[in-house]
Each structure stands twice: as structure tokens, then as C-alpha cells.
Amino acid sequence: MLAAGPATSGLPLVLAGARDQILALDHSVQLRAHEFLIDGWQPEEALMRFAFVLSRKDPAPAVATAVRTAAFPVPVNGSSHHSNSEVLVADDDLTVRLVVRSALENAGIKCRMASTGPEALQILRDCRPCAAVLDINMPGMDGYEVLSAARLEAIPVRVLLLTARQQEADITRGFTLGADDYLIKPFNPPELVARLRRFLRPRT
């Protein structure tokens, strides 16, 4: 069963249902969603995601507000060469990097790759991609440290944490530091792409 909240009520739009149903929706519908709730998640995780969506409507720290309300221009015709559709993929596992890169490039999204925390942070500083997929466990600096540094420096990037950690405290820590979303490994590449698409253009 697919359920969607009203998009015009001023309330966050949440899409809930089977993964195939949600990913089969038109991209314009997916892009309006503030969150996806995929069948099979534990009730605790669903409640945590709902709480995070609602908390975004509250006043946020100046840095986080600047980052989350920054306007990211719409990629032209889905071109992978448009600079504002670029995504950083940072993970110390080469297989994960290649899988994510393949999924993104098949969706017309250009990406850069990093295998360490310091390398990821330098790319964020120099290239300013509009979104980043950060692994939590990376050498040099972990994903939390890269995220924290990016927020302190007010780098305008939307961040999705990709992690094998499933403890609520770990996920809450990521949100507290300013993460925009997260996925737990093993992950579904089409779902990752759908979540990142929301960060490549402003909400309507």
C-alpha cells in the first residue's frame, strides 16, 4: 500500500510503501517527498525518521539553516555535466564506490570519489558538489568528522550518510551534526539515487 501526505497543506510529504512502488513513481512526485518509508523497516526507525522530518520545520542553527535552504539549480535535461548535479561519493570500500558511481552515472548524475575522510573534506572545500554520500568508517577522518567540519565551514552541501551502523544513537548523532539523510548497508542503489535526487534541486 502506498500512502502520501498532502503536498499542499504545508506539512511534510512522506511516501510509504514497498520499494518498487515508491521507485516506480514519477520523479516529480519523488522530488516533493521529504522522506521515504520503505516496507520492512522497524517501527523504531520509522518513528525516528518521522521525528527528524518534523524537526526540520523548527528553527535551526544558522549554519544548518544556510545549508539546508541554499538553492541548488535544476540540472538541465539531467545532464551529467551540469556542475550543480555533482555528488561526492566517499567510502574506503572500492566496491561500494564503484556501485554508487555506476548507479549515479546511469541516472545522469556526475560524481567524484574519495577513499579517505581528509580527501573527502578537501573535495567539498575545492569543488563544492551539491550533495555528498559519506561512509561513517573512513581512515583519517570518519564520516561524522567530515560532516562536522563541512557544517562548521558552512559548505553548502547536502549530506547522506551511508553506514553499517544501525544503533539509534549513531543515526541520531549524524542528524545532530547536520546530516540530511542516511542509508544502512547493505543498501539498494535505486533507493540511494532517489534520495539523492531530492537534493539536486529545490523543493516545490
What's the CATH architecture of the largest domain?
Answer: 3-Layer(aba) Sandwich
Which structural class should the secondary elements be placed in?
alpha/beta
**What is the C-level CATH assignment of the largest domain?**
Alpha Beta
Extract low-pLDDT stretches: 1-8, 58-83
Q: In CATH, what is the homologous superfamily of the largest domain?
A: Response regulator
C-alpha termini separation: 25 Å
Globular, elongated, flat, extended or rod-shaped: what is the shape?
globular
Q: Could you give a short account of the major beta sheet?
A: 5 strands, parallel
Approximate strand percentage: 15-25%
Quick take:
This protein is α/β, with parallel strands linked by helices and 204 residues long. 42% of the residues lie in helices and 16% in strands. The longest helix has 13 residues, at 43-55.
